[in-house]
Structures are given as C-alpha cells and as structure tokens.
Amino acid sequence: MPDNFQMGSFVFDDDLRLHHLPKPPARSFKVAHKGIVRAYVELRRIEASQIDRGEEFSLPQLAKAA
Fold first, then answer.
1. Measured CA angle at 64 (ends 48, 22), to 5 deg
2. What is the dihedral of CA 57, 32, 14, 41, to 10 degrees?
3. Residue 9 CB neighbours (<10 A)
4. What phi, psi does 42 have (nearest 5°)?
5. CA distances from 39 to 46, 54, 57, 58 (A)
6. How far apart, in whole angstroms, are the C-alpha atoms of residue 40 and residue 34?
7. Which of 22, 41, 44, 49 has the smallest C-beta neighbourhood within 10 Å, fewest atoms?
8. Is the pTM of this model over 0.85?
C-alpha cells in the first residue's frame, strides 16, 4: 500500500501487523495501479472475513489507546 511515491510504503505481514518500508513499491501511479487494486481487494477480503466471523473492533477506544 503506497503512501506516496517519495516516502515509502506500508505492508502487512502474515499476522496482519503493519510495517513501513523506506522505499515505494513503484515509481509512478501508472506502474503501481495493479498493486494498489490488489491491496484494496485483499483489505476488503480481510474485512469481509472478520465481519463473517462476527469480529468487532472498537476503533474509537483503540484510537484513544494509540
């Protein structure tokens, strides 16, 4: 998931922990488009799986903890 093309990117590991990478995965939006779409589809799949399992995340409380 590129945050932009100058500041690196973010990636999930197998345990869905988020990590920052110092380099972007692509140098332009055109080159990155397929990866961005793939990331979006995967995040939606993860979300749907969590909803199907009945998992709920109390985001406002988690945000306060951060």
1. 70
2. 50
3. 20
4. -65, -40
5. 10, 23, 21, 23
6. 10
7. 22
8. no
Instruction: Compute the distance between CA of residue 46 and CA of residue 48 in angstroms, rounded to an integer.
Output: 6
Helix (H) or strand (E) holding 9: strand 9-12
Dump pLDDT digits (tens) for 5-53: 677 778 888 887 888 888 877 778 888 888 888 888 988 888 888 888 8
Dist. CA 58–CA 27, nearest whole Å? 36
Task: Tell me the CA distances in angstroms from 19 to 1, 32, 51, one per residue in order.
Answer: 10, 18, 24
Residue with tokens 């690196």: 8
Using the structure block, give the residue that is written with the tokens 């080159």. 31
